[in-house]
């Protein structure tokens, strides 16, 4: 099976089912975290809408199923299929831009990194974003990818229009004025509604962020968590299991001040900061965590080293450079969206669990927050949300800890992030979402024969 040979921008001439393997490499697809590997019947890498439609037509004619893939950065098996894996990453770049409305339309496989650079060139920015830029926009919104900040929308909520190639051969554009129910479904789409060809994002004027990072006592912070989250533009904290302090990050939006007050970092200080992020704050932390996992008796000494690696610092830079950090070390993750008011209690129980069972992680637990969302299947649908995320170096054991943590999160009304490791199925998921049936109705209208389903999405949706 071969990759399509059509020139970018031109329709595929030959059957896309004869295409050669995509960039995922030869005939095997592997997730970023390394926890998922699959050898599909074929990997295709369409470069334009015509080729996407051709893939869907050919698959339907041959009785094969299709799963779209972005950057493979989900940890749950949303992508794996034994049939056709449609690597959408070549479907990328700027489609159009309306600087007056501050709206940009990009192809579905465009990465967040590419989008940030396009926007920077036009004096624009994303209002809020995740802590990493490797995801594609279609893949990110599929799972409700979020950042932090109670007053700023996730990526899914920043979308005003989505164009999908559907299994029934249509190209449909949905927005608030045309197929609004489809837009609400597609805001968090799990890759089961169609192949996302392009999305339009409502952007904001470029702005700068001031970041203050510091260490503080855990107990005091947890006691006033909701207040602290609501008092900052963007609030997050990191907690290494076993420690009595946390590392807090508060980001303040500086866009109303003139340049003289909010000068971005010089190239040198920016380079030093990125090195600090990559080496001291990510790799060293995870390296020490791995050592601690292998030799638990060394934990007190390693924790002292870890705390030295995360000193206080303050800096200002262009927004996306502050929102994100390099992720040199691969990990696997679980994350739950909790009602904001239950987040502190859930976190305290998680800490008790760690104290009792002695679980260790290679990365700190990360706690963030987000506002209510409209997407039918958004984990933040209809409520202010606190997010608790656990990340473990993939070669270390994680199943038992993740499972025990999941139990706590569920007891507090948590909903799993769709892109992470969790054990929920339709039976438990359906009661969590008031628009569950609305999502299913849109799905069955767009894909009545389940061309886009795999085992995992069937299990999730009860199909
Ligand atoms: C280092 C790292 C940091 C992360 N940080 C965050 C974070 O800060 N916040 C957060 O919420 N999550 C975070 N995540 C999770 C990540 O954002 C999500 O799992 C996201 O969905 C991954 O996007 P992707 O492009 O890799 O898509 P994939 O993982 O490849 O696919 C995800 C889903 O999108 C579908 N899909 C992809 N492209 C298309 C398309 N063109 N049309 C239709 N369906 C499509 C797939 O079928 C699948 O269902 C992080 C993950 C990693 C590895």
From TrEMBL:
Superkingdom, natural source: Bacteria
Pfam families registered for this protein in UniProt: ALO (PF04030), FAD_binding_4 (PF01565)
Polar residues biased stretches: 1-18
PROSITE patterns reported in the protein's UniProt record: FAD_PCMH
Region (Disordered): 1-32
InterPro entries cross-referenced by the UniProt entry: ALO_C, FAD-bd_PCMH, FAD-bd_PCMH-like_sf, FAD-bd_PCMH_sub1, FAD-bd_PCMH_sub2, FAD_lactone_oxidase-like, Oxid_FAD_bind_N, Vanillyl_alc_oxidase_C-sub2
Residues in the signal sequence: none
Domain (FAD-binding PCMH-type): residue spans on this chain: 36-206
Record keywords, A-Z: Oxidoreductase
PANTHER family: D-ARABINONO-1,4-LACTONE OXIDASE, L-GULONOLACTONE OXIDASE
Protein name per Swiss-Prot or TrEMBL: D-arabinono-1,4-lactone oxidase
